[in-house]
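note to self — DONT lose this again. spent like an hour looking for the file last time. sequence + predicted structure for the chain T wanted, 56 res
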Amino acid sequence: MEVASAPWADGQNLIHTIEVGFEETAEFAAWTLIATAMAALAARTIAAAARDVSPS
């Protein structure tokens, strides 16, 4: 019976896999931060517009 080895059995592929995982996580975090900032700006803009339009 043949035993299958892990794709990162040599160690180098494991390091590469971890590096790629960190890069993708960092990219996702950056885009999430940008989207959150844009949503906050939109919410502030809508709130300011609502204050300007509301009858006093």
